[in-house]
UniProtKB/TrEMBL annotation:
Similarity comment: family membership: Belongs to the anti-sigma-factor antagonist family.
UniProt organism field: Amycolatopsis viridis
UniProt-listed NCBIfam families: ant_ant_sig (TIGR00377)
InterPro entries: Anti-sigma_ant, STAS_dom, STAS_dom_sf
PROSITE patterns per the UniProt record, alphabetical: STAS
Residue span, STAS domain: 4-113
Protein name in UniProt: Anti-sigma factor antagonist
């Protein structure tokens, strides 16, 4: 069984959701629930959402599909979405699907403006 941990912090400039573990069909609902809870619990709607995927060791097609959904939800809410990832297990699937051209991707957590 794969495991996944989802934590979040609210900063004035962004909601930062930190994901650790494997994102696959067995954990996708946990990730979706965590992101939804984080966005719903924000004291004020943040101008940006940052998904920190540096602790993710695997992301499957269901995880990629969820990233697209989250991107669309953020766009509809007027929020910028940034993915933080630098490891091959996450970057490679994004590159193979062309999603690296769709998302804003950085190797480190962006500094506060």
């Amino acid at each position: 069984m794969t495991s996944l941990k989802v934590e979040w912090t609210y900063r004035p400039w962004a909601l930062v959701v930190t994901v650790t573990g494997e994102v696959d069909a067995g954990t996708i609902s946990q990730l979706r629930d965590g992101i939804e809870a984080a966005r719903a619990g924000a004291p004020v709607p943040p101008p940006a959402v940052v998904l920190d995927l540096t602790g993710v060791g695997f992301i499957g097609s269901s995880g990629l599909a969820l990233l697209v959904e989250v991107s669309e939800e953020c766009a509809a809410a007027g929020q910028e979405l940034t993915l933080v990832c630098a490891s091959r297990p996450v970057l490679r699937p994004l590159q193979l699907t062309g999603l690296d051209q769709v998302f804003t991707i950085t190797g480190t957590l962006p500094p506060a403006p």
